[in-house]
Amino acid sequence: MAESPESNDASAPIGAEFILEKMAGSHLVPNVFVFRSLASTNDHAMLPENADLQSGTVIVAEEQTGGRGRRGRQWHSPPFLGLWFSIVLRPCFKENITLLPLALGLAVAKSLENMPGLAPDLKWPNDVLLSGRKVCGILCECRSDAAGRFRVVAGIGINVNQDSGDFSAELRPYATSLLLETGNAHDRADLLVSVLCGIESVLAELEANRSGKILEEWTRRCPAIGKPVSVADGEVVSGRFLGIDSIGRMILSTPDGSRRLVAAGDFEDNRSKE
Ligand code: BTN
Question: I need a surface site. Which of 16, 83, 103, 164 has the fewest CB within 10 A?
Fold first, then answer.
């Protein structure tokens, strides 16, 4: 079995050969490219010269200087402290495509559950939380090229070895890392392999049209279901969070007794206001 270079050193660089070797039994990951620094792994995957990257190709950056979050936010990606990567997918399950971000969040949550002492929660649409703070964010972007070939770039950021001083004062109340939650530094290459294996298995479920299983597993990890919430998407909609529909929208029961389906938005858990 291949050893991660300096595998006892959590700050060791991520080795592409190590990832490829560990994923050798998988059909998901044909290539892994590790960069010392990129503006954004999503942007890199979307470059015209990368239009032919095979499905499953993984692009990792040890540091992102222009990491992007959802809704135009910044994603702070300091060197060697987290996992900042994108995976290029050419999914053959267009009917389930809107479930992909939720499924990826589920894959990350299940991989963190394998670590002693961690009990991640999911926050719609695709954040992973530990102790109520964000440990992972996901940004899925799609593009069709001139030949009509459709690809998704799924960008995943996981806070791994940051100490509280590595987060800005603004982020500190909302963000956490595996180091902060467990008291230990974690090997990022091992974590990447575990998350990629999890992604392979949720993709297999979506491809086999077993989205019910994804929705059920997602729902089980979302503590806000059944609780009062607000979602801001231009307007603010408040109501009780009843669940997720078959294409990943939030089902809300509003105070006037009607049902609202919300496809996108910033979500606030109003449990404390109950
Ligand atoms: C969010 O929660 O707002 C989404 C954050 C997504 C961050 C990841 S890090 C790797 C990839 N490259 C980016 O620029 N963003 C995503």
Answer: 164
